[in-house]
Amino acid sequence: MRASQIPQSSGGVHKLCHQPTTNFEQYYSPYHVVNNNSSDTSSSGTQLSYQTQNEKFFTLDSLPDAGYVSYDSPPAVSVSSNWSPFSPQCSQSYISDQHHSSDNTYGSPLSGCSVINDGNELKHVLREMANNLLGPGFDIDEDSSCSFNGEVSKPSKWNRVLEIAPSLDMKELLLACAEAISDVEVTARDAQMNVLEQKVSDADVTARDALMNVLEQKVSVSGEPMQRLSAYMLEGLKARIYSSGSNIYKMLKCKEPTGSELISYMQVLYHICPYYRFAYTSANVVIEEAMRNESRIHIIDFQIAQGSQWVFLMQNLARRPGGPPSVHITGVDDSQSAHARGGGLHLVGERLAKAAASCGVPFEFHAAAISGCEVHLENLQMRHGEALAVNFPYVLHHMPDESVTTVNHRDRLLRLVKSLSPKIVTLVEQESNTNTSAFLTRFRETLDYYTAMFESIAAGRPGDDKQRINAEAHCVARDIVNIIACEGADRVERHEVFGKWSMRLTMAGFTPCPLSPSVGEAINGVLKEFSPNYRLAESKGALYLGWKNRALATSSAWR
Q: Under a CB-based contact definition with an 8 Å cutoff, are residues 63 and 497 in contact?
């Protein structure tokens, strides 16, 4: 997800972003999902209370319980868990909601703890599918090859899968395609390393391509959510095969949009999904509360985008009793934001200066036209006497970590920020685990996560809506293809679950800052405009935004 493409201010678009907290009636408390329905007061044992808010939700990994933390190596910790604040069997408490019903899952794994933690669980899923479709006795061994009573070879396995491929649903086909691709890759890699004498067989490649051809007949970018998602995941698989994942537009057979087109596509998502407003509103409330008694404020935004977020903050600061503080904003840029704006950061500075002048807030803007990986102390224009707030909106997962480079910009940036002694740091990230996962595990996680996202998008616009199709193709599909097709430095979409972010921040010297009820109240007010299938929950120091039973994004504060 890229906050860099949030619409510029124009009329009603920005009025949707933030509303005064005095208008919100719901009380927000830890371990409960905020509920707009005051009549929902029942509880049931040990399940987590939740509120259905709207029919949009990104699928990502759920927050790890402390009991599920494991350390793979000193520099690269790993957190895996089936825990989710929205999964009834995994959560702390439950409050029924009149909007919640058994059809909320659309037949997807969103109704429970659906995270695939490792290759063994993925093999179990594939084994179960094989047993159901191919009959008892068909199995998958530890090397991901298949055996039938110990005698069936890989080619025979794929021949049998191909026989029943037309009867598979799209999820089963996607998993079969991914495993077939993995088989070819593993064989080719082992042969290259002289581990095996055998080379990739024509039968393996033929089976892989045949499965993808079957899937291609079922997908549609204007169909149901699963058809649309499958279309883009199929493009990701193709891009992986042809090693062209870094060129998403080529693989999607569409030209790169102009800046104005990209902005219009993001405006569509901005209106029908609350994910960006979740990020901006929660951060604004946290920062405003932290800076309540400060007369000079410096905000470093590591993805300034169009700067819309700060227009609303300055409007709120202008109403402060005794007069507004002076506001100094440092905006870090990226190439995609500049493309969407149609110009450099000076456009953001000019726009924010006008907004500040209109509400009487003393203002100064500093442009840092570099990516987050390139940021150093000298780029941040630090000044003595200014209270510092740092904002990370859906951006830290783009920073390469120790698994990509020895420089480890992800942790380096956190240590740099800590050295500045900020009064508050806000972090909003997608709740997914795709950073260091192997291909098959990562594929399954991506399938689960974006199943929920596409369901949520469908709640806002019909399947054949051309604006929605363009928005998905240019603003969502590129991320999907990058996750599936790319490896190493080319894979920039490297999400981590909140438990891992918490570890990184703690190791950098930060401590969590509890969120006040005002944050949940503000987000709850935003969600009133969307489907009741959106849910909000707070747990373990983070605020979770979910679609049905899937946590998709988290917001947290640190100091």
A: yes
Which residue do the tokens 């199943």 mark? 451
What are 347-388's pLDDT values in tens digits?
999 999 999 999 999 999 999 988 899 999 999 999 999 999
What stretches of 342-392 show up as alpha helix (H) in DSSP? Answer: 345-359
CA dist 136 and 430 (Å) reads 39
Calculated CA dihedral for residues 525, 529, 533, 538, nearest 10 degrees: -20
pLDDT of residue 196: 55
Q: Which of 346, 314, 321, 320 is nearest to 331 (CA)?
A: 346
What confidence score (pLDDT) does residue 359 get?
96
CA-atom Rg of the chain in angstroms? 24
For residue 295, the one-letter residue type is S
Residue 539: helix, strand or coil by DSSP? strand
Non-local CB neighbours of 294 within 8 Å, separated by 6+ positions: 325, 387, 423
Phi then psi for residue 377, to 5 deg, are -55, -40
Number of Cβ within 10 Å of residue 383's Cβ equals: 12
Of 403, 337, 419, the closest CA to residue 371 belongs to 337
Regarding pTM above 0.85, the answer is no
Which parts of 151-224 fold into alpha helices (H)? 154-164, 170-192, 202-216
Contact between residue 287 and residue 31 where contact means Cβ atoms under 8 Å apart: no
